[in-house]
Write a structure and sequence with these properties.
By secondary structure, the chain is of the alpha/beta class. It has eight helices and four strands, in the order βαβααααβαβαα. A four-stranded parallel β-sheet has the order 1-2-3-4, sandwiched between helices. The chain starts with 9 loop residues before the first strand and ends with a helix.
């Protein structure tokens, strides 16, 4: 925001890891956030997935992105949400084109990150979304995130892990009215 000379506060939205970063930003720089909308926020801690994340990072380092593509996409972009075959193929192509070292590094960073203690510091209006089909960051875990943020709203949507990718219209129909209030 400073580099773009954006003063004041902003509405911030994210999904998965970017939601975790948004939560950390809102806790550390509360004056810069007007409203916060996060879906399936990944922010590390004792979530029980640290070993899986480290194993995924190791596999990507050894075999590249293609070696992990189907396993990850089957978990995060369920076939029932692949209503537009072309859009899914585009997303898969972008996912495979990630730099393996960068992907492995941010996956290891996530495994070691723990923002849970900072959730209580978030003071802005916050919307936390969970996907009912998200097996990694379950709806109950996302509800716990919302409960740790004073006054946060929680909604469970008929979606998967990457809500704006899996169900973009549903995500927009939920997040935009919250931001417009």
């Amino acid at each position: 925001m400073d580099a773009l000379d954006l003063s004041g506060s902003a509405d911030v939205a994210g999904t998965a890891l970017s939601s975790g970063v948004a939560l950390a930003f809102a806790a550390c720089m509360p004056e810069r956030i007007r409203k916060l909308a996060v879906s399936s926020p990944a922010f590390g801690g004792a979530s029980g997935i640290e070993a899986m994340l480290r194993a995924r990072a190791d596999q990507v380092e050894q075999k590249g992105m293609r070696g992990q593509a189907d396993t990850s996409l089957d978990r995060f972009f369920l076939p029932k949400h692949r209503l537009d075959a072309s859009a899914f193929q585009d997303y898969r192509a972008r996912w495979i084109s990630n730099d393996p070292s960068s992907y492995a590094s941010h996956t290891c960073m996530l495994a070691g990150m723990d923002e849970r203690a900072n959730l209580a510091k978030i003071a802005c209006p916050t919307l936390v979304l969970g996907g009912e089909d998200d097996a990694l960051l379950t709806p109950s875990a996302m509800q716990e995130v919302a409960e740790a943020i004073t006054g946060a709203e929680y909604q469970k949507l008929a979606s998967g892990h990457f809500l704006p990718v899996n169900t973009p219209d549903l995500w927009a129909e939920t997040v935009l009215p919250f931001l417009d209030r």
